Amino acid sequence: MIDLAEVVPLLERGPAVLRALYRDLPQPWLHASVGEEWSAHTVLVHLVTTEQRAWVHRIAHLLENPGGSIPGVNPGGPDPSREVDEMLDEFERLRADNLSRLSDLDLRTVEGTHPTLGDVTTDNIVAAWAIHDLNHQAQAMAAIAGRYRKTVGPFIPNLGILGSPG
Fold this sequence. Notes:
By secondary structure, this protein is mostly helical. The protein has one domain (4-162): Four Helix Bundle (Hemerythrin (Met), subunit A) (Up-down Bundle). 57% of the residues lie in helices and 7% in strands. It has 6 helices and 4 strands. The protein has helices at residues 4-22, 27-31, 40-53, 55-64, 84-104, 122-146, and strands at 33-34, 38-39, 111-114, 118-121. Strands 1-2 form a two-stranded antiparallel ribbon. A two-stranded antiparallel ribbon has the order 3-4. α3 runs parallel beside α5 and α4 packs antiparallel against α6 (122-146).
């Protein structure tokens, strides 16, 4: 079974990492995107949405319905026109609530089915939750860095975050 003592400290830091990165950044940095798809701002919208609807909710559902199918995450979430600080506050509050709920669960390894990925366990979901944070933190940083991709000129090969081996 997954060791929550290892995973929870990582999950606790997620909102603080984004708050430190996003605090007082001018809007152009927050809205720069990687491949016209993800920006630091859309990453935050996505993280709030998944915090509202995915991780701990799926774990609790599987514990209550062993062998069942976990619910999908419906599109939607916070209004993307909301202020970044407001969404950061919401992310922080939701994460604290979800970690409290996680600690209240009788967590054990239970199998179930993900709507698109197939067989999953509660351990898979907890681990994916933590790595999902890291993935999107890196994605937000890459989007921010990408804004200066052309400006760094000949330094691109030394800057791995811009997609170079650096």
